[in-house]
Here is the input.
Amino acid sequence: MDPSPPPHQHASFAEGLTLECGQHLAPIDIAYRTYGSLNAARSNAVLVCHALTGDQYVAEPHPVTGKPGWWESVVGPGRPIDTDRYFVVCSNVLGGCMGSTGPLSPRDNGTPWGPDFPPVTMADMVRAQAMLIDALGIERLFCVIGGSMGGMQVLQWAASFGPRVFAAVPIAAAAHHSAQNIAFNEVSRQAIAADPDFAAGRYWATGTVPARGLAVARMMAHITYLSETALSRKFGRRLRGADAGATMFDDIFEVESYLRHQGSSFVRRFDANSYLTITRAMDWFDLAADHDGDLSRAFAGSRTRFCLVSFSSDWLFPTAQSRVVAQALNRSAANVSFVEIRSDKGHDAFLLEEPDFFTTLAGFLSGCAEHAGIK
Here is the structure.
């Protein structure tokens, strides 16, 4: 990845932040993008939290890849998150590689943090986001919304800053990572570490990047984002015209070519040390453990309105995990609705054209906006 990402909207905090690991990180930069306009009452702000491989470019072409924003189907004029009505903020998470302070950032000696970057948690990421929201002059968010790792951030916002959140929409998420998900992440991390160009995380010193390892990590993760039905429908067992002379290392099946493309394009925009940092933050996340093993305590006394969304074919964050969160919210007497969207697209369904999801999201936000007095 280019160590000098393009310019961003960004906020700098000289005072920094004391992380949960005990290390004080200063200064801190948070890169972000905004869409729409903040109303006079400053009551219409929606914070969108991105997933593991996302960033702040939620509703505009990505400056590195040129591809459309990762949620342009949801965020924009007339979309479910209507930028004619809401002021949308999306920031690159702490530990990321698109302008926020992370392993790519320089230390005092001018070299990148690299593998010495301190471990960050979901709570650290959310506290950094709260610093940004403060800097934007927003006392209370109308809504915090996100899918996958973004949904984890939404739950952390509700637990850490409940009075500042009018509505919360965790999508295809859970209150902790399962053992299976931790295992998938570890395989991805080992693929990166095994790349000879990884150089113990100091690859910038040799002018290389662990492209092969990072590409394999992305390929591995991408399989978990899809369902078997979606893969079969899109690729089946179709061949790429392989002939008798093809070797076992050639792209023989269409699905192989697709995964290799996903891997190679990912390497151009993502830093390997950031991938290691962020996957660890996901694995450490356990909201119940932070509240004596009782998830309902995380939301005690909450006045936030919740809408939990899951997808029927999502095996990475299955519906049962969202149901656990919904039950904890019910025990805490929170205002909660929960819907499972019928879809065969797997975990990535929240990123794709899914009319029932769009209708659910638009309806929930519109109802909340009426209660909040947002025109």
